[in-house]
Amino acid sequence: MPEQTSFIDFADFSGGQASAMHPEIGATEASMLPHEAQILENFDVDIVHGLLRKSKGYARSNSAALTGQIRGLFRFITSAGVKILLAAANKPAGNADIWTMNDTTGAFTGLARSLTANLDTFFLGIRGFAAWANGTDNVELYNGTTTKTLGITAPVAGPTVAAGAATWTNLTGSFRYFATFVTADGESDNSPYSAVITVTNKEIDLSAIPTGGGGSGVTQRNIWRERRLGGEFATAVKLYEIKDNTTTTQTDKFLPGANPFNLHWRDKAAPATANYLSESVNRFFLADLRKLYWSAPFEVDTWDSLDYEGMRELDGFNISGLALMPDGGGLLVLKQNMAIIWYGSSNRDWDKILLFPGFGCVAPKTLVATDDGIYWLSRNGLVSFGSTTQPRRVERISTQAGVIGRSVAVRDIIDAIPNNTIAQCAGGWDGKRYYLAYPEVGQTTNSATLVYNPLLDSFAKRTGWAWSCFASLDAPSEAFGNKTARLMAGDYNGFVAKLNETNQNNAASFTSKYRSPVLPLEGRYLTKQPARIHIRGLAGAAQDVTVIVRADYGAVQTTWTWSMTGAAQPELFIKAIPETVRGRVIDVEISQVANATLDIYSISLEYVPRSVKF
């Protein structure tokens, strides 16, 4: 019986098992074939059409770099619907600023914030404000026009006090006073104390009661009093509500111990600094490395000194991130070694209810809320957390360059990153995929990016990038000049880039590379007879594609140049496998350096199976 030519596909590009195995391949032998590409760089897998597609590139938005590293990026939409891109980066004076970018021109304008340089900055959009925190400077709020420190500005001076008339009130003892401002957002923290005054059977006259300046929004001042008992002052009580912003005098006639509003003072100061921000169930949450703070319900500027929880005491590790749970009903608090879910309502205190040891966050900038859940980087790999599941580790990944012939877990790459640089990893979401920028071994800044596709549960690699932070935009995409983008990125050189949805890289050429799983040309089902490689692809323009055949997990046997013409129909590349490779383990590598598009439809091996005797 004559021998017949047959084909075997190398593997489907998603990293799954080969989809067109020859019937003579037994189950045991098939299970020995690798399930993932060895290298997948600057290629994406088009799951709809079943092909490799050269990944979209990037184009810088600003032609002139900012003076230092971009350490935070955020898309802010004001209450009026105005869209502003905010960037935290250094400025010529040596400190940092928050910059706003013009979407059309890419030009940046500073907000004149004198912030500490080179600090990772985290943003949050909340109730018409963009809030930012960097762990050192004051938490600030920006409404698209003006910037203010978090909290209601307190009076800068207390009232003046003097002994008044001797009347029936018979105030006797030592007293001191302070004032607070009241706005539509709530009550401020206290002013400095007045002088201590001691009287016997007299009223006390207050003057120079502070007023709010123009545009302060102050509609009322409250007067609080403390009485000395022994050597200490008792907790302050509210005596008067002055229902305007003009009156500057008041006479205290209340007897010692009086509390007409039945209120005792509790500090109203908002946390001065914070590292992380989030919102959940109508509360604003801030966290430093040790404590979690929350605002009054439905408020941004109103805080209470007792509304916090010490988190470091749980296990001695710091807080490393906050995020709203995917179902919108809880807060995810991440520490370096565990994840904690808090649930609560808008009118009661919160209680932590779920702990997930081993799922902590080691790189705060990798914490991203996506359409597919929440992602972050743990010491054991990338973690995904959906709305109804517990956290899970994302394990599968195509191997990075230099690791040949096997699949590796994300944690294998992460373990290679020095501890002093792992916190620089950053995450982003483009509406379909999660981007993980990480410093490669020997690098001090981010120099590569892994792109995770949840539909395929696999990663591809991007090279030639140096991203420090990302900012997700509105779905499905937003216009930037004549481009569209879903994800923006900032780098360590002061540039912001559009990660294009519709345009190939128009900033610089970059190399796309695919290296297939290995395939043995030996065994029960194959002979050492002639074989040929078939590759089908489509190029957007005339270009050269390099095709390499390797043997035995690394040694280059043959290098060909595939000169594609940019034809309207897919082109076919066919080459005979050298005799020296027959009977050995081979793989095929395809690479291309250009800005044009490139699709690879299929890679297959044509061979002559062993004769079957009847």
C-alpha Rg (nearest Å):
32 Å
In percent, how much strand structure appears in the residues? over 45%
Number of helices: 3
Cα(first) to Cα(last) distance is: 9 Å
**Strands, total number:** 52
Sheet having the most strands? 6 strands, antiparallel
Structure, explained:
The structure is a single chain. With 614 residues, the chain is mainly beta. It is 3% helix and 45% strand. Strands 1, 3, 4, 47, 50 and 52 form a 6-stranded antiparallel β-sheet that branches. Strands 2, 45, 46, 48, 49 and 51 form a 6-stranded antiparallel β-sheet that branches. Strands 15, 16, 17, 19, 20 and 21 form a 6-stranded antiparallel β-sheet that branches. A hairpin with a 2-residue loop joins strand 10 (122-126) and strand 11. The longest helix is centred in the N-terminal third of the chain and has 6 residues, at 27-32.
SSE inventory with pairings:
Blueprint: E1 6-9, H1 27-32, E2 39-41, E3 43-46, E4 51-54, E5 58-60, E6 70-77, E7 83-90, E8 96-101, E9 108-110, E10 122-126, E11 129-133, E12 140-142, E13 147-149, E14 160-163, E15 173-183, E16 186-187, E17 197-199, E18 204-207, E19 220-229, E20 232-233, E21 237-242, E22 250-252, E23 276-280, E24 283-287, E25 291-295, E26 303-310, E27 319-324, E28 330-335, E29 338-343, E30 351-357, E31 368-370, E32 373-378, E33 381-385, E34 392-394, E35 396-397, E36 408-409, H2 410-415, H3 419-422, E37 426-429, E38 434-438, E39 448-453, E40 458-463, E41 467-472, E42 478-480, E43 483-491, E44 496-500, E45 510-515, E46 519-520, E47 531-539, E48 543-551, E49 555-564, E50 571-576, E51 585-594, E52 598-607
Antiparallel strand pairs: 1-52, 2-45, 3-4, 4-52, 5-44, 6-7, 7-8, 8-9, 10-11, 11-12, 12-13, 14-18, 15-16, 15-17, 15-19, 18-22, 19-20, 19-21, 23-24, 24-25, 25-26, 27-28, 28-29, 29-30, 31-32, 32-33, 33-34, 35-36, 37-38, 38-39, 39-40, 41-43, 42-43, 43-44, 45-51, 46-51, 47-50, 47-52, 48-49, 48-51
